[in-house]
Amino acid sequence: MLFVHGPSSTVVLVDEEDIISTVLAGVPDSAQGQEWDGVSDGAAKVIAEGVSKMTFAAKNLSGRRGKFATCSAGYSYGGGRETVGNVLINGKKNREIFEGVLKSEDVQRIVGFTNSKLNSPSLILPLKLARYV
Description:
By secondary structure, the chain is an alpha+beta fold. Helices cover 37% and strands 16% of the residues. It has one domain.
């Protein structure tokens, strides 16, 4: 099924139990013309530059989602973990590069927009999210 939506509209895809599987957030209402393209291009450039400077274990150069380098960061649960915990990036140099990417103005704008959408009462209130709490 083909579904077409406007760039500033938010579309939430749910399963038969109204559990969110995907959010198509569009672009911020405040983005003017091609501005958001510049933000996403800038973030992509910062990420690519960061990845090119990082070092990766051989096992992290390719995975089940494709042939690209990965590192784990943030909070995690499962995969052998019995409690929720913070995953630290290996190596001081890699951590500094990763933190630099996260501080990029373009990455911060995307993160801020994403957070505003995912924390929006108009998005989450109608859905049955209680099972995750």
